[in-house]
Specification:
Structural class: alpha+beta
Helix content: 40-55%
Strand order of the largest sheet: 3-4-5-6-7-8-10-9
Radius of gyration: 20 Å
Length: about 260
Amino acid sequence: MILGWGNVRKSKHSLMNSKPSLSDVNQQLKKMRLNGQAIDLDKYLASFKLNKNAVASLKWLNNPIWWSRIENKSCILTPRIGDDVPFVRSLWADQDFIHSFHRLAKPLPASDEQLTKILNDEWSSSLDMNNSLHWIIRCPKGDPYGLLSLVEISCQHRRSEIILGVVPDSPFGLSTAAMLTLFEFYFKKIKFNKIISNVFEDNPRSLKSTMHLGFRVEGQFLKHTLDPTTNQFQNMTQLGLLKEDAFCSVNARLAKKLFS
């Protein structure tokens, strides 16, 4: 397995003199990603005295699929990185977008240098270091229109929570295309089992569109989350999506319309 991230001799020998732990090797692989180094993962891992389970875990955690772009004719999802700072800042400056996308999102650091470091650190981390994945939603031409994140990822239970938002002037159907594009990656490529979506009670439009894509209501939580804008506790609806519902006939028709 070749990872497209150079010469790794110095990095490898820095660990060869000791018996590294899985965490040591994983941290070194993260540094290689940040430095843009390319390696043969199988040969690299074979140079250490690691048991089969540790090698299998490292191969899965560092599979290039986690850092690849996902695309089709209607949508492109690119991993969010430091180069995306200007676009991310424009979204955080849009209060309506943030309220719809993630009203509990923390403020961004004032320094672009610090924000670049944060985004690159998130991007380069494997799931055991940072249990989230973030993409920029782009139209087929490559212009950015929104964000899609998987958070609270559980590799053990193969589930995560989805957060998605696009700006008002995004191309028609882009939000739906992003979701359907994610389904292909999520359920077929990485073979996860379930996606969760939590919707505030004051966002019925989001609830309706989420259910339209096959999500089922699993529970309602009264006064569950404090809205920082209104300083009022909000009810939440939790929805879940399984593979069999993600590829239902309704979504199949939508995918054919959007992607063909």
